Each structure stands twice: as C-alpha cells, then as structure tokens.
Amino acid sequence: MAHAFPVNHPLRPTYRALGGLTGIYLTAFGVLGVADTSGQEFFAQNDATALWQGTNLGYSVIAVVAGLILLIGAAIGRNVDIAINKLFGYGFMALSLAALAVLRTDANYLNFTIPTVIVAMVVGLVLTTAAMYGKVGTDEQSRAAREATLLLETH
C-alpha cells in the first residue's frame, strides 16, 4: 500500500518528544562511554562497555555529538527536527548494518557488539518514524497530503 506522509499529524508532539528522548539516550550513552574509555586509544577494540553495549572512545564521541544535535533539533522544532531525525535515522540504520558486516573482523573500528548493533538499528528506526510523522505545515499542505493519501488508496 502506498502512503503519503501526513502533515500536522495529531501525534506530532509525541514524535518530536520521541526524537528528543532518543537524543537524551545517545548523549547519556556517549557520556558514560567517554568516562569508561577515557585514556584509551580512540578506536580501541577491547571489552569496554557502556549500558551493556560495546563501545570505544570514538563511538562514544559520535554518540554524544549525535545526541546533542538531536536535542537541539527537538528544541528548535519547526521541521528542523524532521530533517535531523531523518538524516540520523538513516545514518544509524546504515551504521548498524555496516557494523554487523564487520562485527568479528579487524575492521570493527567502533568496537560494536551484537547489543550495540541492535540498539543502533532501533535508534535509526525510531528516528525515521519520528521524521515521517512529525511534519508541521499549513492547513493547505495538510489538506493536500490527505487528498494524496486518498488518491493513493483508491488506485
């Protein structure tokens, strides 16, 4: 079934909050990871963990930066959060699939483990969902989106 993304969805504040909560989680994970791995090699491949996920200083810094950007986007709103959530959602899904491909090799530079791959994929899916249903627009754009959905359903 084809689907046109809604504008002014009734749950858009919930989706915006979901993006912000994801940013809080990533920031907390990253800060704990930086605290646990400080003083180690940036891309160390060891048994360092934060919140039961494999990490190293490199991935922890990436998580902190991504989390802060997501929080800033959620605070700004006005469809800025939609663009940020979409970008980071696709990015985390791609990162998790790439990490899964190199999980037990020397190319596992971010020190991912299976739990880290799962969490990164879930983060990507949550952010992508928040991006799809959180768009704010004018009443005219909202009507056009509803009409497009009705056209897609009848064909």
TrEMBL record:
User: Which chain regions cross the lipid bilayer?
Assistant: 57-75, 87-103, 109-133
Q: Name the UniProt key words of this record, in alphabetical order.
A: Membrane, Transmembrane, Transmembrane helix
**Name of this chain's protein:** DUF4383 domain-containing protein
